[in-house]
Every structure is written in C-alpha cells, then in structure tokens.
C-alpha cells in the first residue's frame, strides 16, 4: 500500500482538528466550561487525548478557537443567506445581518457564549488563532460593504460594541433585553429595524435622541 500524499495527510489533520472544535462547542454548550474535560472532548470527537495537545496549547485555547469557529460559520451563513443583498441598501443589510448573527448566538447559546466572554475577560485574554482571523475578516468585510472609509479603525469598534452587547445580554441577574441592545446598535449605524433578521419584539424606543453618526459617512455600497 502506497503512503498517503501530503495533501491527503493535511486534509485528515484538518478534519481531525475540526472534529475537536465541534466537540468542544457541543460539550461546553451542554455541560458548561468547567464541567467539560479534555478527555470528554477527545471521546466526543473520536480522537486520542494526546491529539488535542498537538493542535492546541491548552483547554482555553481550544475553547476560544472552537467558539470563534462557530461565530465564523454562523456569520458566513448569515451573510451568504439568499436572497443576496442588492441595491442601495445592500451594505446596510450586510451589517444588519452581521449584528443579528452575533446577537443570535448570545440568545441561542447562552451557556457557551457566557463561558467564552468570561474567558476573554480573564487573565489569559483574547486568543488569536486561524478561526479568530477568519471571523475578523468577515466582520471587516461587513464594514467595507457598509461603506466604511477606514475599516481597519471601524472594524475594531464594531467588534467591541458586539462584545459589549453579548455581555449585556448574558449578564447574570441583570440581563439587558436583546431587542433594546439591537436597537441601540442599529441606531448607531443608522440601520432600519426591518433589515437583517428582526426579533419578534417591536422596535423599542431608545430615548437617546438622534442617533450618533456611524463610523463611516459614505453611503452604503453593495
């Protein structure tokens, strides 16, 4: 039997890594971060325990990469969902979809996203990985399509606002209503409530007066 080619080996490694990431998302969502062990993850993924350390320095890095992958896939699906944004409001629709995709994860996967935000705010901080870079590229692309003149400045602001909204939705004991947080973000970027995937709730009144100008002053581009 001839040895596998380098490309075949690379594909097998990619699939093995993705199984570990998917297993991490599933288990932490079911049990919480502390109750999920690396052995549990390896068993769910059908992998050897030692394979995790081959790909990831530790549990925290594995977990953040897993959540960043989920966020990237969720955002990618939202931006590609038909019908494709077209016309003069295409850029605003893209940004609305991006905001709704991230807020939707806070609503639909609270255990997972609460653990993710807690990890980022701890001493270990923000883990940069391939999955995080893919997520960043999609959010930056959303800002470009929105019409940002300076996406390298405006993208980090969008990321910070989204992170703050997710924390506010998931704050134990004093969560903010998702619809209100969505309205605040939509006001900031001058997005109509009906763009993206509006929640069932009626658009709340922010009571903040005219919204501040968005980071970009160019009209939305398709």
Topology readout:
Elements: H1 6-31, H2 38-45, H3 49-55, H4 59-80, H5 90-108, H6 110-121, H7 130-146, H8 151-170, H9 178-188
Overview of the molecule:
- This protein is mainly α and 222 residues long.
- It is 64% helix and 0% strand.
- It has nine helices and no strands.
- It has helices at residues 6-31, 38-45, 49-55, 59-80, 90-108, 110-121, 130-146, 151-170, 178-188.
- The radius of gyration is 19 Å and the shape is globular.
- The N and C termini lie far apart (52 Å).
Please tell me how large the radius of gyration is. Answer: 19 Å
Q: How far apart are the termini?
A: 52 Å
> Number of DSSP strands?
0
How many helices? 9
Q: Unreliable segments (pLDDT under 50, ≥5 consecutive)?
A: 207-222
Strand percentage lies at under 5%
**How helix-rich are the residues, as a percent range?**
55-70%
Mean pLDDT: 88
Give the biggest sheet. Answer: none
Provide the succession of SSEs.
HHHHHHHHH
Structural class per helix/strand content? mainly alpha
Shape: globular
Structural features:
mainly alpha, about 220 residues, 9 helices
Briefly, what is this?
This protein has 222 residues and is mostly helical. It is 64% helix and 0% strand.
């Amino acid at each position: 039997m001839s040895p596998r080619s380098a490309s075949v080996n690379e594909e097998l490694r990619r699939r093995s890594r993705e199984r570990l990431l998917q297993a991490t998302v599933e288990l932490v969502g079911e049990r919480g971060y502390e109750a999920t062990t690396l052995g549990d993850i390896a068993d769910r993924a059908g992998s050897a325990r030692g394979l995790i350390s081959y790909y990831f320095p530790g549990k925290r890095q594995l977990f953040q990469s897993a959540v960043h992958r989920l966020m990237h896939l969720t955002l990618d699906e939202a931006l590609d969902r038909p019908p494709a944004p077209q016309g003069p409001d295409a850029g605003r629709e893209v940004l609305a979809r991006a905001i709704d995709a991230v807020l939707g994860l806070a609503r639909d996967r609270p255990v997972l996203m609460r653990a993710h935000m807690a990890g980022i705010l701890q001493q270990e901080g923000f883990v940069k990985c391939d999955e995080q870079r893919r997520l960043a590229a999609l959010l930056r692309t959303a800002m470009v399509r929105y019409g940002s003149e300076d996406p390298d400045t405006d993208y980090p602001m969008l990321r910070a606002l989204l992170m703050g909204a997710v924390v506010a939705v998931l704050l134990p004991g004093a969560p903010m209503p998702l619809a209100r947080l969505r309205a605040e973000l939509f006001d900031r970027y001058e997005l109509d409530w009906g763009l993206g995937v509006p929640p069932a709730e009626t658009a709340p009144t922010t009571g903040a007066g005219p919204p501040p100008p968005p980071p970009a002053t160019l009209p939305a581009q398709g």
